Amino acid sequence: MGARKIIIDTDPGQDDAVAILLALASPEEIEVMGLTAVAGNVPLSLTARNARIVCELAGRPDVAVHAGCDRPLGRRLVTAEHVHGETGLNGPVLPDPTMPLQQEHGVDFIIRALREQEPGTVTLCPLGPLTNIAMALVKAPDIADRIAEIVLMGGAYFEVGNITPAAEFNIYVDPQAADIVFKSGAPITVMPLDVTHKALVTRQRNDAFRAIGTPVGTAVAEMTDFFERFDKEKYASEGAPLHDPCVTAYLIRPDLFTGRHVNVEIETCSELTIGMTVADWWGVTDRAPNAMFMGDVDADGFFDLLTERLARL
């Protein structure tokens, strides 16, 4: 088998940046066809900028970056500057990007890529709100059967919510989009908070990034130095969860993760629990399974992989 063709849909975000870097450092397993930016952690103008900054940091200005949707399908945009800083990439001082933003809208790029490639050969990797993916499915329903897999970071079951008591941020920002994606029939693998909260950037693990001694290693260490302050205070944990790289790590080393194929429904109406991923973990309903919902990760193996691959850039 050759490298797996993927499109990364992203709202960088320090952890998005690390996920992108991991993908670009792993050409044997992953062929990045392009990046689509979406509004989420910060507004679209910044996520599209940050995606290009990360590509240039990796020495890959050839990667096509497309701007997608600038707001959720039916709600006002909620952002997370309180976590990621006003730029979304606070921490390291990185130069403004010089590579161009593509003219084609991100949603149109997703549709075109899926139609041009053989069915079942393109994996979508959403790291932020699912607005772009849902819009592509609504605009071109025929692509659902052409998607190899959707591997996403979002949702929670045992870890409940991180933006409300019931909801994880990515799903909460656009629950209507998430509902469309989970009902699409495409194969879905979910990296929820249940997994990502076990992938903690401890001081020792961050020191390993810094010890790489390259601009990439230093930038990643400075990114995680910045955003860990919020999570360590919030969760009283020994480090911050590194959410989004779980998606790209799964593409390289699926054996690092374990989970269950279960039914996942998205709450779109309740004021109290909107954005909740209702995962039938115990199989108490007769609803058909529609997602591989991961529950655990080999954290040491995950960080060993991450450190080894980042050192390549």
Structure description:
- The protein is built from twelve helices and twelve strands.
- Helix 1 (14-24) runs antiparallel to helix 10 (215-235) and helix 9 (203-211) runs antiparallel to helix 10 (215-235).
- The two termini are 24 Å apart.
- The longest helix has 21 residues, at 215-235.
- It is globular and about 50 Å long.
- With 313 residues, it is an alpha/beta fold.
- Helices cover 37% and strands 18% of the residues.
- It has an eight-stranded mixed sheet with strand order 3-2-1-4-5-6-12-9, with helices on both faces.
- The model has no long low-confidence stretch (mean pLDDT 96).
| Main sheet specs | 8 strands, mixed
Structural class determined from secondary elements: alpha/beta
The SSE string, one letter per element, is EHEHEHHEHEHHEHEHHEHEEEEH
Helix content: 25-40%
**For the CA atoms, what is the radius of gyration?**
18 Å
Between the first and last Cα atoms, what is the distance in angstroms? 24 Å
The overall pLDDT, averaged over residues, is: 96
Number of strands: 12
Overall geometry: globular
Continuous helix count: 12
- In the predicted model, the low-confidence regions spanning at least 5 consecutive residues are none
What is the beta-strand fraction? 15-25%
Instruction: Going across the biggest sheet, name each strand in turn.
Output: 3-2-1-4-5-6-12-9
